[in-house]
Amino acid sequence: MAYPTPMAIPPQSSSHTHTLILLHGRGDSATDFGSELLASSRLPSRLPTVKFVFPTARERRAVILGRIPINQWFDNYSLEDPGERTEIQVEGLCQTGKFLRELIDAEAAELGGGNR
């Protein structure tokens, strides 16, 4: 399953100097998290040369929630003890790491930085 297209808010200025990639929490989405953050903080007007990118995690079955599918970057068994049952984290961490690396590379290329 692919990751949804990220929500991107272009800079308010004609100059694009930085990109912030911000990740939502477990069970949330880019639209809900990004919209709330931007509305409550007025970040675009405070940082007019910054592009804001909010990716959405793909749906994964949450073991701790009886395997119901929710948006999460990787599955984990316990928020209180992230070291518990770490084997269920590996696949999602690898997939999410690859997705985020590609997103970072694309944003760096847009700013003229290319692959690093």
Radius of gyration: 16 Å
Q: What are the segments in which pLDDT stays under 50 over at least 5 consecutive residues?
A: none
- Helical content class: 25-40%
The total strand number stands at 5
Overall, the morphology is elongated
What is the CA-CA span between the terminal residues? 27 Å
Described by strand count, sense and barrel closure, the largest sheet is:
3 strands, mixed
Structural class: alpha+beta
Order of helices and strands: EEHHEEEH
Question: Strand order within the widest sheet?
Answer: 1-3-2
Helix run count: 3
Percentage of β-strand residues: 15-25%
Q: Report the average pLDDT across residues.
A: 93
In words, what does this structure look like?
The chain is an alpha+beta fold. Helices cover 32% and strands 17% of the residues. It contains 3 helices and 5 strands. It has helices at 30-41, 43-46, 90-110; strands spanning 7-9, 18-21, 50-54, 59-62, 68-71. The strands form 2 sheets. The chain has a 3-stranded mixed β-sheet with strand order 1-3-2. Strands 4-5 form a two-stranded antiparallel ribbon. The chain starts with 6 loop residues before the first strand and ends in a 6-residue tail after the last helix. The relative contact order is 0.19.
